[in-house]
Amino acid sequence: MNRIMMGLATLLLSLGLQAQDVVKDQVVLAMKTGNSKDLATHFIANIDLTVKETADVYSKAQAEQILRKFFNDHPPVDLVIEHSGVSKFGDKYFIGILRTRDAYFRVTFFLKKTDADFQVKQLRIESSKNDF
What we know:
Elements: H1 2-33, H2 36-40, E1 43-51, E2 54-59, H3 60-73, E3 76-86, E4 92-100, E5 104-113, E6 118-127
Parallel strand pairs: 1-6
Antiparallel strand pairs: 1-2, 3-4, 4-5, 5-6
């Protein structure tokens, strides 16, 4: 009986991690391609968004507009995730470098477990201190 319970627990944990990886990969792809619409589908209802020097809590629609303008002004070339971890609140976070046609930006986003899925609760796109 204990083996069955351990097997079920392991299966559920691995399915949760796979779902999280799928969302992370979709967020990274949307950012690489500058697709603000696809990116916004992964946001919680009101997202903590920082783009360069502007930071606030925005609705999905507002955040999508802000990101569309950012991607139009800075067309993405690539996004490389360099670090990931788990916050003290249990949220998974990812840190990477977004390379655009004209600059480099440090990107950080947090995935929060919601009812049946993972969603982006915070996204930061900040000017990079140096070009890599």
